[in-house]
Amino acid sequence: MAELHEHARPIQFSDLPAAPVPRGQRPRAARAIRRIGLAAARRQRPAVPARRHRARRLALPRQAPAPVLLPLGEPVPQTPDQSGLPSCSGERRPVVKTTRLLAASAGLLAIGLVLSGCSATPTAPAANAHSDSVVLQNDLQYGTARGEKLLLNACLPKGGGEPTAAVILIHGGGFDSGTKDFGGMTALCSELADGGLAAFSVDYRLAPEFAFPAQVNDVTDALAWLRDPAQVAEFGIDPERIGLFGSSAGAIIASSIGTNGTGSLTGDDRVAAVVALSPAVDLTEKGLLLGDPSKMAISSILQYLGCDDFRACPNARDASPLYSVDKTDPPFYIAMSKKELVPLEQGQAMMLALKAVGVPVTLDVKPGERHALELLDEATRASIRQFLIDNLVNSSTRTD
User: Fold this and answer.
1) pLDDT tens, 191-207?
2) Partner of 329 at 20 to 30 A CA spacing, among 93, 100, 144, 246?
3) What is each CA distance from 230 to 34, 201, 278, in whole angstroms?
4) Can you give the pTM of this predicted structure?
């Protein structure tokens, strides 16, 4: 599952105003608290401890560290693995029971290889290309889970006066690989800050040691950490204007948090905008029939869900952002290719669900097979730039 290489010109957010547009005082709607109950029927795995956040958390499988962020306007080179189905050599995969889903599995290789990261080659983090305009703070600890430190990198615009909007970046890797430093996230973090937005690239716990909802819980903890008054003051951010930017597996986490809870988008576990590149949103047995699914994906998804069989996997629906959509959710920008690893029907299903309840949504469909950060050509970057300006910088916060 390829993503963009880290040699790109910065995303120019030159349209950003010097200061956020003032918002009137609006009452915050009460949040409806939703919890995810982890099923006792799940496969034997370390239990994920209860977290302090009250609202529901979610997540999904594994996308590999990606290639490179290309300069705007340049075509993404196709590798042999991208010209057809990605191939894996000697990749360990969990043993999965034979199920009646073999017919559905024919197409979910789309998600499976994306999320399992078979086709990508790890790349070293790129040096900051914008050191004159961006302040980098790496390896900041935002929490601890089961004795494991949870870290993030902060990319901050220099010379900021008024509190700035912020974006949390969530890497791909199929939920069992990838980090905040790889797969194009280092370059993207710096680029966003160079354009005037505070960006935070986060790590989260990986499968198979940690299953759903650990990954979503971790990113939600990062969101809460950023909203703490100490971090708000240190980073100069506006806690009411925080968005999420997820790629592939990270797009599932972003979509899950974006549809989590109800009411005001200005606090708690809520966010003001979601950018999701190549998300799968329905991880249920029914969802495997969307588009042209595949077999490898099934093992990746089951690994993430902590199940051996979809028919005995009560977590599948809870882990599917599609079933958590409501009218108070934030605006979504979804980008996918017509023939990429995640079936386009997944994105179309999310678009229809959001539209049905009146939530603003853009589904940006590209020709070809590009996946996740590979989608960030010049036109897509311009569209995402405008989306973030409209929904994090210039827009009043919705409280319905």
Assistant:
1) 999 999 999 999 999 99
2) 144
3) 28, 19, 34
4) 0.72
